[in-house]
């Protein structure tokens, strides 16, 4: 016998869905990490590469371009010899920091909970 479909009692998101819009801004592998690394100030490509070791140069370059197009960061070419490029957060990028900090906080709680469950299971 199939189970009866329950009605969703959650309020419907406003149109257009603001959660979806926000997630589109920070979408893409390593995008939150790039924003996180820029929260303390401007960084050059090589510095970001050190900040996020697992990311490839190709993906980092793509993510920086996407975040610039979305208005999250600014790209500044500095008149040095050779020229250098720095990236910094825009006002929109700065507004994303509290949301990322909240996600990190929940991540710590999940890690602690998972660690607790692992210890409890090992004791059984």
Description:
There is one protein chain. This protein is 56% helix and 11% strand. It is mainly alpha-helical. A three-stranded antiparallel beta sheet has the order 1-3-2. A hairpin with a 5-residue loop joins strand 2 (73-78) and strand 3 (84-89). The longest helix is centred in the C-terminal third of the chain and has 33 residues, at 91-123. The radius of gyration is 20 Å and the shape is elongated.
Largest sheet: 3 strands, antiparallel
Query: What's the Cα radius of gyration?
Result: 20 Å
Classify the helix fraction into a percent range.
55-70%
Number of helices: 5
Strand content: 5-15%
Low-confidence segments: none
Note the overall shape: elongated
**For the terminal residues, how far apart are their CA atoms?**
37 Å
String of helices and strands: HHEHHEEH
The secondary-structure class comes to: mainly alpha
Give a count of the beta strands, DSSP E runs of length 2 or more. Answer: 3
Calculate the mean pLDDT score and round it: 88
**Sheet with the most strands: spatial strand order:** 1-3-2
């Amino acid at each position: 016998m199939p189970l009866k479909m329950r009605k969703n009692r959650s309020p419907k998101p406003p149109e257009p869905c603001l959660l979806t819009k926000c997630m589109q801004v920070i979408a893409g592998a390593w995008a939150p990490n790039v924003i996180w690394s820029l929260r303390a100030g401007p960084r050059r490509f090589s510095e970001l590469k050190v900040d996020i070791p697992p990311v490839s140069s190709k993906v980092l370059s793509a993510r920086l371009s996407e975040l610039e197009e979305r208005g999250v960061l600014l790209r500044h070419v500095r008149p040095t010899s050779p020229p250098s490029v720095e990236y910094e957060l825009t006002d929109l990028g700065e507004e994303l920091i509290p949301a990322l900090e909240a996600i990190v906080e929940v991540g710590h709680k999940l890690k602690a909970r998972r660690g607790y469950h692992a210890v409890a299971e090992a004791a059984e």
